[in-house]
Design a protein that fits this description.
366 residues, alpha+beta, Beta-lactamase, Alpha-Beta Plaits, five-stranded antiparallel β-sheet, globular
């Protein structure tokens, strides 16, 4: 009952914020079923907003289209102009007269959201950013983004550059559909340029179950924005949120709306199901409350693989214990712990001693 009431309070809190046009006109959201295009949730979805760096989704869409049409290839060198080099951060700090490959440019746009790179792309495709913006708007019309006008390739402030949450969901849908292989790049969490590693701005992608892209955005006039995609049980949803007060609030609000929409389709979180099953396996959880941690990893996939390895090699130690991956924070970083849980204190100590005997990492959480 407490959990249900909390969900209701959170929902109405988000709903009140979103529908208050007079005070919060820039706030908008939409969640779409990718397969059917059914809108599962929307508020102010057709309200005009500044796209900020969500603009780069269209810039990337055009790059992918040009590659498919053989007008570009992944190793094409794009020249950097003085104007492009002077763009405001976020940027790679490219130097005028140098060049960057299409492959590196794409990764810089996805991960770093580099404004100088966006201008480089625009100038190399259309000669000037102004002409490229016209091309962007023409692509938008063809895709059915009827309320969108682009004026630049990066999303830095321009009063005439406007879009809507619905139009960005249409663009996101088109990119995933028309360029499925290229879309996989949006799941990348880091990009290396000249021996420097840049990490993704899309923090929700690191923690949300089933997430695989797409793009964050922010300028002061727009607030914090996010176009987002996640797949659970072979069902993909696309969510768009405009006007967040902070990145954290934006992520929390859109995660809630995505969860709510998955639930509407009777798709629950996997970890919720694990909790239910574990209670059936062991009713005496107050006694068997100890957790054995067998590894800590930067990526969730590595943590999951490690659990399978430990289970396979040491079945006696892990028999009848639930395997789970937990997201933790350590020194400001997000990490994934590989865990086996529901041990008694005695059994947890025994399990760790066995694993350490074979030089396996192990420690106990009570």
């Amino acid at each position: 009952m407490i959990k249900i009431s909390t969900y209701i309070k959170v929902f109405f809190f988000i709903f009140i914020i979103l529908v208050s046009n007079s005070l919060f006109a820039k706030k908008a959201a939409i969640v779409m079923d990718y397969e059917t295009k059914e809108v599962l949730f929307e508020v102010n979805a057709d309200t005009l907003n500044f796209p900020a760096s969500l603009t780069k989704i269209m810039t990337l869409y055009i790059v992918f289209d040009y590659i498919h049409k053989d007008n570009l290839n992944w190793q094409t060198q794009l020249k950097v102009s003085k104007f492009a080099a002077s763009e405001s951060p976020s940027k790679l700090y490219l130097e005028a007269g140098t060049s960057i490959s299409v492959e590196d440019a794409v990764m810089a746009l996805i991960v770093k959201s580099a404004n100088d790179v966006a201008t480089v792309v625009a100038e190399n495709i259309s000669g000037t950013e102004k002409e490229f913006a016209k091309l962007m708007s023409s692509y938008a019309r063809k895709l059915g983004m009827n309320k969108t006008t682009f004026k630049n390739a990066h999303g830095l402030p321009d009063r005439a550059q406007m879009t809507t949450a619905r139009d960005i969901s249409i663009l996101s849908h088109a990119l995933i559909t028309n360029f499925p292989n290229e879309y996989k790049l949006f799941s990348k969490t880091k990009f290396v340029w000249k021996n420097k590693t840049y990490k993704t701005h899309n923090k929700l992608m690191l923690s949300y179950e089933g997430a695989d892209g797409i793009k964050t955005g922010y300028i002061r006039a727009s607030g914090f924005q996010l176009a987002f995609s996640a797949v659970r049980k072979n069902k993909r949803l696309i969510g768009v949120y405009f006007g967040g007060d902070t990145g954290k609030q934006r992520n929390k609000s859109l995660a809630f709306l995505m969860d709510r929409s998955f639930k509407k389709l009777k798709i629950e979180k996997t970890n919720n199901k694990k909790t239910v099953i574990s209670k059936k396996i062991d009713n005496n959880t107050s006694k068997n409350k100890y957790i054995v941690v067998v590894g800590t990893f930067k990526y969730k996939k590595n943590a999951e693989k490690h659990l399978k390895l430990i289970r396979k090699k040491y079945p006696k130690t892990t028999n009848n214990k639930e395997a789970t991956v937990a997201l933790i924070k350590s020194n400001g970083k997000q990490l994934y712990e590989s865990r086996f849980q529901f041990f008694s204190k005695k059994d947890a100590k025994l399990a760790c001693s066995r694993l350490k005997k074979y030089k396996r990492d192990c420690f106990i959480r009570g």
